[in-house]
Design a protein that fits this description.
This protein is an alpha/beta fold. The protein has a single domain, classed as Alpha-Beta Barrel (TIM Barrel). It contains eleven helices and eleven strands. The strands form three sheets. Strands 1, 2, 3, 4 and 11 form a five-stranded mixed beta sheet that branches. Helix 1 runs parallel beside helix 4. The protein is globular and about 50 Å long. Bound molecules: calcium ion. Calcium ion binds next to strand 2. The site of calcium ion has 3 residues, from strand 2.
């Protein structure tokens, strides 16, 4: 059942070792042998595309210290409210919890040291292309368009801009080493059928409780929806929690059938997120957990914070 073309996707870079979405984390992911390196993409006030997981800057940079008055009513600091030159003055750090102090993953890189920066999408892709040239190893990119409906409401068509930039940098056909991903199913259809994007695409599948988009993810996981999805995308990116449940008797993972249902209609499955410091119960190490998902479920790749432990 094991797929020989198994893809290791470095989730926000080698984010288990260095602060997420910094060029340092991307360089390390490249060095550790990742097949693809992920970019989450949001827009600045001056319509530049930056690599940042949240539409907010405050969990992973010192924006609140540097620009204390620039938050919205919800006390969050939005990338969309800052020009790129301002964001380029920020120090990026390991992700902190909602209190702004505690590290989300306390055993990772310390939150208080380092001179990391927030890269633009163009800078990061050029950087990966440079490493590809220098090493002779062709590592792909795996950009995610974040919150397209929110960006549109802010007056910015982020999808169109991302596709244009990728085209500028040489990514335009399905043979190119790129997967484009998004949680918003309506936007994924638009990107493929209205904007005419030819790239390999992944429909991300979240949980309805997260409020990530208007997409109904319970519906999206049904056989009928997967068959429909296969007309638009090359694969799905579900959460691990949507692939297995834990057996009530022995606590062991049991398949929920989503991988085989996706494979039945020709969709690849790239689940997220495999973390050595957040193992599923029943596994003692990340390599053991990865092996189980490959051998028992036949997943085609995975997002991991630890590209070496696979
Ligand atoms: Ca992502």
């Amino acid at each position: 059942m094991t797929n020989s073309e198994f893809l290791v996707i470095a989730h926000r870079g080698a984010s288990g070792y260095l602060p997420e979405h910094t060029l340092e984390a991307k360089a390390y992911a490249h060095a550790l042998g990742a097949d693809y390196i992920e970019q989450d993409v949001v827009a600045t006030r001056d319509n530049e595309l930056i690599v940042m997981h949240d539409i907010h800057l405050d969990r992973v940079t010192n924006v609140a210290e540097r620009f204390p008055d620039r938050h919205r009513e919800d006390n969050r600091f939005y990338a969309r409210d800052f020009d790129l030159v301002e964001i380029q003055t920020l120090i990026a750090h390991e992700r902190r919890a909602d209190d702004g102090i505690e590290a989300v993953f306390p055993n990772r890189f310390p939150t208080g040291i380092g001179e990391f920066r927030v890269p633009t999408l163009r800078q990061e892709i050029r950087f990966i292309q440079g490493m590809n040239k220098a090493t002779g190893r062709e590592v792909g990119i795996y950009p995610e368009i974040k919150r397209p409906a929110w960006h549109r409401n802010e007056g910015f068509d982020i999808s169109r801009h991302v596709i244009q930039l990728l085209d500028d940098l040489g990514y335009r056909s399905r043979n190119d080493l790129v997967y484009l991903q998004c949680f918003d199913a309506e936007e994924v259809r638009r990107i493929r059928h209205e904007l005419g994007c030819q790239l390999k695409m992944i429909q991300l599948i979240g949980d309805n409780s997260w409020g990530e988009s208007d997409t109904d993810y319970d519906q999206l996981r049904t056989a009928e929806s997967l068959a429909e999805l296969a007309k638009t995308v090359d694969g799905i990116g579900p959460s691990i929690m949507h692939l297995v449940t834990l057996n009530e008797i022995d606590g062991q993972p049991v398949s929920l059938g989503l991988v085989s249902a996706a494979h039945a209609v020709g969709l690849k499955v790239h689940p997220y997120t495999f973390r050595a410091d957040q193992l599923m119960p029943g596994f003692d190490s990340l390599p053991e957990m990865v092996a189980w998902f490959r051998e028992k479920l036949g997943i085609d790749g995975m997002f991991t914070d630890f590209p070496d432990l696979t």
